[in-house]
């Protein structure tokens, strides 16, 4: 199914799975609040399973939760190869449970991979995070029961929130156009009215206003753009950029890269005094996003608290010029000294 946003795809997968048999959804403890809201908005009780320092699940804890959950969400953060392989092995344990839960994989921060996680029921992506399109989130069914249920879901008549969706897409397009022009200006000025941040935040707030039980279909223009991309070449480009950043910055004092085999929207960097460093980098024209603010419902505990407190993302996009990566490496190295 071709849907508008990652949270739309997740919502559709949960709707199809129907966790009402148990009323419980198991989520990893390092998670975006919008994902939590999608599950809670569908009347589910959310249980969080603990993660290790490399963001892999603590297996015994997850298996215990999965025994009583209707849905389990797995997340191969930033497309890290080692983490993805651990999830593949864990998935085999999940599908072997007597009361098998529905297993959904969240690839919103990872680049699509040809070797899909076929042990799960559903995989969803958020391609608008990777490409210059305002929407686009494929929901892919892998298991027989998922394919059958998805086919029925696609045939059902659902009212689409076209008015709100149109407003979202207009804000998205405006944000991307502004950001494209802003990146070409020198010197860069951190003004949300110039860099498209205001429009981006406005579109996010509109997404949150979509009715919780609706999963709008993605636009044809975004689908056409994605279909004309060479995903294999783009994936290789993203992987090369990620390895270039890690290779150049891994030995910089104060920098820690817990995931060194990423192929996703960014390479995560852990650093002390994140706020001060982020402000200093911004002053040098380097803008580093963070994933994510910690939701109040997420339990406190190491090592995930450290991720919430110190993670910054070094963007790695297929359209990113190599010279921009060189400039970012040079400026971040200088700031750390």
General description of the model:
The protein is an alpha/beta fold. It is 44% helix and 12% strand. The protein contains twelve helices and nine strands. The chain has a seven-stranded mixed sheet with strand order 1-7-6-5-4-2-3, sandwiched between helices. Strand 4, helix 4 and strand 5 form a beta-alpha-beta unit. Helix 1 packs parallel to helix 2 and helix 9 packs parallel to helix 12. The radius of gyration is 20 Å and the shape is globular. The mean pLDDT is 84.
Give a topology summary:
Layout lengths: L1 E2 L2 H12 L6 E5 L4 H9 L3 E5 L9 H8 L4 E4 L6 H15 L6 E6 L14 E4 L11 E5 L2 H12 L6 H22 L13 H12 L11 H8 L3 H19 L16 E5 L3 H10 L20 H7 E5 L6 H15 L1
Helix pairs in contact: 1-2, 1-5, 6-7, 9-12
Q: Could you tell me the radius of gyration in angstroms?
A: 20 Å
Backbone structural class: alpha/beta
Global outline: globular
What is the β-strand count? 9
Q: Beta-sheet strand percentage?
A: 5-15%
Helical proportion, percent range: 40-55%
Oligomer: single chain
Low-confidence stretches: none
Give keywords:
337 residues; 9 strands; 44% helix
Summarize the structure.
With 337 residues, the protein is of the alpha/beta class. The chain has twelve helices and nine strands. It has a seven-stranded mixed β-sheet, with helices on both faces. Strands 8-9 form a two-stranded antiparallel sheet.
